[in-house]
Design brief:
The chain is of the alpha+beta class. The chain contains one helix and two strands; from the N terminus they run E-H-E. The chain has one domain. It has a two-stranded parallel sheet with strand order 1-2.
Protein backbone atom coordinates (compact mmCIF):
# COMPACT_ATOMS: atom_id res chain seq x y z
CA UNK A 1 0.00 0.00 0.00
CA UNK A 2 1.29 3.45 -0.91
CA UNK A 3 0.78 6.71 0.97
CA UNK A 4 1.17 8.74 -2.22
CA UNK A 5 1.02 7.98 -5.94
CA UNK A 6 2.66 10.57 -8.19
CA UNK A 7 1.76 10.60 -11.88
CA UNK A 8 4.44 12.18 -14.07
CA UNK A 9 8.19 12.50 -13.78
CA UNK A 10 8.46 16.19 -14.61
CA UNK A 11 9.82 18.83 -12.25
CA UNK A 12 6.64 18.99 -10.13
CA UNK A 13 6.30 15.22 -9.88
CA UNK A 14 9.91 14.71 -8.87
CA UNK A 15 9.73 17.54 -6.33
CA UNK A 16 6.58 16.07 -4.78
CA UNK A 17 8.27 12.67 -4.61
CA UNK A 18 11.38 14.05 -2.90
CA UNK A 19 9.33 15.94 -0.30
CA UNK A 20 7.19 12.87 0.41
CA UNK A 21 10.23 10.62 0.82
CA UNK A 22 11.75 13.14 3.23
CA UNK A 23 8.55 12.79 5.29
CA UNK A 24 9.07 9.00 5.19
CA UNK A 25 5.98 8.31 3.09
CA UNK A 26 5.75 5.23 0.89
CA UNK A 27 5.65 6.68 -2.65
CA UNK A 28 4.90 5.22 -6.08
CA UNK A 29 6.20 7.37 -8.97
CA UNK A 30 4.69 6.61 -12.38
CA UNK A 31 6.35 8.17 -15.43
CA UNK A 32 5.58 7.98 -19.13
CA UNK A 33 7.87 6.53 -21.75
Amino acid sequence: MYDLIVLGGGPAGLTATVYAIRKRLNVLLITGD
